[in-house]
Write a structure and sequence with these properties.
Layout (H helix, E strand, L loop, with lengths): L1 H8 L26 H9 L4 H13 L3 H5 L12 E5 L5 E5 L2 H13 L19 H12 L19 H4 L8 H8 L16 H8 L6
Antiparallel strand pairs: 1-2
């Protein structure tokens, strides 16, 4: 199809005969999430302050790698425990992190001796981290213990992971968790609950979770 489109653009073909053809839909697989026990093993396997800060921030926010690598430390709202993350198609959303993530982030930033604006920087010759160094750090942590589940930042960024399972507690409303974790479709079928807003999400995310 791309070849035919190029022929049309180069005026070598009058019209694109494939315009009405639809590409087959490819099946999607939900990445396997971490269990609570696996998450605790991952936390215990962290050695450096950077490792702790990354793991806690990914777990708290459920952000994509691409969203986190773009964050600047000056953008962090420490008082409210939130930051605006820019994701795919340049869409901006507010994500929240709890007290444990805040503590490790501040330790990490205080430990750094550079002036780079990025929230997370490379360990040598500090500059803004790209996707591959972040994935490498997660693999390095996972290799320290025998874990059957493949670890990547995606393990923290899907609605079915342990963080969201806490929404089943009777005293914790469901919709704020769904709003925090789900990035694609907020209209997915869920139990009817009170509508959520940013304040409710912030209040919920500020509670102690697995601390």
């Amino acid at each position: 199809m791309l070849h035919v489109k190029w022929l049309v653009e180069e005026d070598l073909l009058v019209r694109n005969p494939t315009m009405k053809l639809k590409e087959p839909k490819l099946g999607k697989r939900v990445p396997k999430a971490l269990t609570i026990d696996e998450l605790e093993l991952l936390r215990d396997s962290c050695i450096s302050i950077l490792e702790h800060a990354l793991v806690e921030f990914f777990f708290a926010t459920g952000c994509r790698v691409g969203e986190i690598r773009k964050l600047d430390r000056s953008a962090m709202d420490w008082q409210r425990g939130c930051v605006n993350a820019i994701g795919k198609e340049n869409k901006e959303r507010e994500v929240y992190f709890g007290s444990k993530s805040r503590i490790w982030l501040q330790r990490y930033l205080n430990h750094r001796g550079d002036q780079d604006a990025a929230l997370f920087v490379t360990e040598r010759k500090p500059h803004r981290m790209s996707i591959h160094p972040i994935e490498y750090i997660f693999n390095r942590i996972a290799n320290r213990f025998d874990l059957q589940t493949k670890i990547s930042p995606t393990s923290f960024a899907i609605p079915s992971q342990p963080y969201c399972s806490i929404r089943e507690r009777p005293s914790w409303p469901c919709s704020p968790f769904w709003a925090m974790r789900n990035r694609r479709r907020r209209s997915c079928t869920l139990p009817s609950v009170a509508p959520c807003d940013n304040k409710r999400i912030s209040d919920i995310s500020g509670r102690k979770i697995h601390q």
